[in-house]
Amino acid sequence: MRIAVITDIHGNVAALEAALDDIARRGADATICLGDIASGAGWPRATVELLQSTGMPCVRGNHDRWITEHAGEKLGMQDRIAHEDLSADQREWLMELPGTLEPAPGLLAVHGTPDSDVQNLIEEVVAERLRPAPMAVLRERLGARGMAARVVVCGHSHRTGMVQVPGGPLVVNPGSLGLPGFRISREPMHRQEAGTPHARYAMVTLGAEVAVEMIAIGYDWERAARRADEVGANPAWAHVIRTGLLPESA
């Protein structure tokens, strides 16, 4: 069984359209989304509408939850843009998404960890950068449910990575489909940069053995960057979409 895994779209419908076309070309038995769907300086409403039209199973991310839990004026830029663009029904749809999914036997899908949508699973912050978490920390975050799975797919960190836990699952993070970098100004302060503007997803094949393809595709990121400028985002948002780097790194 071949399952395409997308995550952290952040309202970038241009990246989503390209990924769905690529997935169809490569062939997949199913596609799943791991959350943080709409929040971003892009096309929140169109992103939700496209995902809803596919009927694909989706996990709720922390930003999906925040834009429903909080009033628009109390939200940060990317969440406020989404809150204003989405209908009440669309926000409710996001809020009602499950925190975890088991789309195939032995496969556990989460946004952050099995128990948290704001905790990275395979990374920790070191000197304001994301680095691989110690195995003991990873096992603790997985918990009994995660350790019992064959494969755990996660998002949230936007950092492509894969870890085989001894005596436990293969953990796969495809990286972000729609936002290749970010800066977090609250504790623990850190930043993440993919280094290129490509849209990222994973293809997981479940058979006698597990195979994983980490895929990065080109799309019209200039269109997405122009959209960020049009909706009045911080200029850093358009810059990271165009380059995969924060302005200070470039």
Automatic annotation (TrEMBL):
Listed InterPro entries: Ap4A_hydrolase, Calcineurin-like_PHP_lpxH, Metallo-depent_PP-like, Pesterase_MJ0912
Coiled-coil portions: none
Pfam families from the UniProt entry: Metallophos_2 (PF12850)
Domain annotation Calcineurin-like phosphoesterase: ranges: 1-182
Origin: domain of life: Bacteria
Similarity field: Belongs to the metallophosphoesterase superfamily. YfcE family.
Name of the molecule in the record: Metallophosphoesterase family protein
